[in-house]
Amino acid sequence: MTTTLIDLSVDGRKIAGLAAGGDAAGTPLIVALHGGGYGSGYFDVPGHSLLALGEATGFPVFALDRPGYGGSDSLPRGRATFGDSAEVLDAAIGALWTDHGEGRPGVVLLSHSIGSAIAVHVAARRPHWPLLGISLHGVGDRSPEHIISAWRAIPTNGPVELPPEQRRALLYGPAGTIDVEVVEAAKASVEPIPLEEMLEIVGDWPENLAELASKVVVPVQYTLAEYDGLWVVDSSRVATFAGYFTSAPWIEAGLQPGAGHNLDHHRLSRALHLRQLAFAWECAARATAADEYDDRLTGQERHT
């Protein structure tokens, strides 16, 4: 696999990340947004790399460092909200589309955890570039009370580093769902989490989710892992979350057995990534078919 570094300048702000090129005809641009406490390398763990699989199947994949992570500039103090991040990423993805979108049907966002919350914000903005769909996992609408209490009790305004044992307990499923060496390899992409993100994901996010989701007018794929330690997990929560997207033309939603929060690093990661890419392909194919149908209708009108 050939991975290249992304270095974008958008309105004077740097957005960095990783890219892997696939060139199959008809494939959309894939933009991946990582969660809290990881950079773009979250999607490039050896043996579980979304970028490698995307390249192998012909999809161009761009994993962006969200503002404040990796090589990307931080947002100003007091502006590190999901909505502000979405505004910056909206512009960055627009720049990617300008540079790499020629001949492609559009963009599909694949996202994890806090990145999924921000992906909903991006979609709710109804960006000017052609967003075809959003795939969300590692996010929910209700956190366990002990998580809410723990996040709110953190006595600092700076970035937070979760101890390795807490990271293992909250973000990964039980033995048998993961390989120990993969958890170790994933540590290379670990970064501190801005406390603002931790507080927003258990505060404003669940309060604002229904309103935001109602503004999303593209297809949605949603997956919640059985052993996700950051969210209340059961089939009713999956159905409730999917039900917020009242304007989406179609929705795929399911509970993933045998995996934890960092589903991309579990033994079932390949299954997740293949489903995500299949979803992206279907979004692109349906959009292309709809455009061709509209073109035929327009042509008929010109000749009547």
TrEMBL record:
Q: Identify the species of origin.
A: Actinoallomurus iriomotensis
Which ranges form a coiled coil? Answer: none
Q: Which Gene3D superfamilies match?
A: alpha/beta hydrolase
Q: One short Pfam family name for this protein? A: Abhydrolase_6
Domain annotation AB hydrolase-1: ranges: 30-222
Q: What is this protein called?
A: Thioesterase
Q: Name one GO molecular function term.
A: catalytic activity
